[in-house]
Specification:
Layout (H helix, E strand, L loop, with lengths): L2 H8 L2 H6 L2 H11 L8 H5 L3 H17 L8 H11 L18 H9 L12 H13 L15 H6 L12
Helix pairs in contact: 3-5, 5-6, 5-7, 6-7
C-alpha cells in the first residue's frame, strides 16, 4: 500500500466533485506521480473554469482506475470542450485503441447524474464500450437489434408504473 492508496480514504470521489481549483491542483500534484502528470503548458492554455474541469476529470479517472489511468492531452481537450458546451472532434488523427472511449467516459464521471447516448455502428464495439464504461463504475447498456431477445435486460430496466403515476 502506497501513499496513493491511503489518499483514497482522504479524498473520496464526492469530495473531488466539490474541490475548488487550487485544492484540485494540490491533490493532483499529491496523488498523480510526476511522470504521469500533463505539462504545465497544457494547463496554461485554459481559463480557470476549464482547468478545474480538466483537473477534476483527471483525478476522477485516476481514482476510478485505481491509480492506473490519467487522461492524455487529446482526451482532456475533448472533455473540456464537451463540458464547456463546445463541439469536439476526436479521432481524426488518433488510431484504433488510442483511447477515444475516455472522451466519452470522462464527461460521465464529471456529471454522474446525467445520461449519455453514444451511437456505435458495430456490435462488438458496443460490447467493448459497455465493458469500458463499467470499468469506471458507469452503468451502460448496448441497445441494438438483438436487445429485444434479451429478456434479462428488459426485466432490469422495465418502466415502473409508467402511465399510472406519471400522468402519461
Amino acid at each position: 500500500m502506497d501513499a496513493s492508496d491511503d489518499a483514497i480514504n482522504e479524498y473520496e470521489l464526492q469530495d473531488i466533485q466539490k474541490f475548488p481549483r487550487e485544492m484540485l491542483y494540490w491533490v493532483y500534484n499529491t496523488l498523480v506521480p510526476e511522470e504521469h502528470q500533463l505539462p504545465l503548458s497544457f494547463w496554461l492554455q485554459y481559463d480557470e473554469e476549464q482547468q478545474t474541469t480538466g483537473l477534476r476529470a483527471s483525478l476522477l479517472l485516476w481514482i476510478h482506475s485505481k491509480y492506473q489511468d490519467i487522461p492524455r492531452e487529446f482526451q482532456l481537450t475533448a472533455t473540456i470542450a464537451t463540458m464547456s458546451g463546445k463541439d469536439s472532434l476526436v479521432g481524426v488523427d488518433v488510431g484504433t485503441g488510442a483511447g477515444k472511449t475516455l472522451c466519452m467516459v470522462l464527461p460521465c464521471l464529471l456529471a454522474p447524474d446525467t445520461m449519455a447516448i453514444v451511437f456505435l455502428p458495430l456490435k462488438w464495439l458496443q460490447a467493448v464500450q459497455v465493458l469500458t464504461f463499467s470499468r469506471y463504475q458507469i452503468k451502460a447498456v448496448a441497445i441494438n437489434k438483438d436487445t429485444l431477445n434479451d429478456p434479462n435486460l428488459w426485466k432490469c430496466h422495465e418502466p415502473r408504473n409508467l402511465g399510472r403515476d406519471s400522468g402519461i
